[in-house]
Amino acid sequence: MAVDPPDVELTMERLPQILDHPTAPEQSSAPSWKPSLHAVAAPPAIPGSAFPEDLATVTTRELRLLCNRTFQHLDSDHPALEAREQFDALTEELERRERQAAQRGTGDSARETFRDNALFSRFELFRNGVMAGYVQYDMRGGHVLLLHSVIDPRFQRTGVESVLMQAVLLDAHRRRLAVMPYCPEAQDFLAAHPRFLSLIPARQRRRFTLLMASRAESAPRDGA
């Protein structure tokens, strides 16, 4: 399915993007805090559904449930016009809370930098100036094909892979790019974070859902 390329920059070589949610060391315990509520204007609710007027007053668990429910409605044959606006509002609020949680770490939190290396066609994540991992991609018009992921052995089991995948998908969302997840790491992350599934084109999204269901069914047999 041909899609016109979006009017976006295809490289961030000269202007690396500093992540707003640096990963705090795992051993540091989050201090007690009291969330600062701010008014978040919610879009008009879908008729017959209870969409909150102020998303800041909703618990994170309820936000995730609403996000998944709204995505399922958005993926139906005849979604309501307000569904897209509601889904974007829920996603933005969840991302805001994730950034806020990351910023509660200690002052020695790792500094992470994400950039699109267009020369080598890969999304790179640096931690404290050292490349921790990258995702190789192929850009075809308005589609970005995620081919494979590589994590430096020194950064394995530190949560870098999850941070990298989230940065890749947030960048695709910002640039209005459709995502084609060919590497298993991207597929696993999308399955665990369904709010990003809207980045996959509708036709491939249904195939992706079937693929994940097939993998889940075959997993017990493989381990037997």
UniProtKB/TrEMBL annotation:
InterPro entries: Acyl_CoA_acyltransferase, GNAT_dom, GNAT_YJDJ. Residues 1-34 are annotated as: Disordered. Residues 81-217, 115-201 form the N-acetyltransferase domain. GO terms for molecular function: acyltransferase activity, transferring groups other than amino-acyl groups. It holds the Pfam family Acetyltransf_CG. Keywords: Transferase. SUPFAM superfamilies: Acyl-CoA N-acyltransferases (Nat). It comes from the Bacteria. This is N-acetyltransferase. It comes from Arthrobacter bussei.
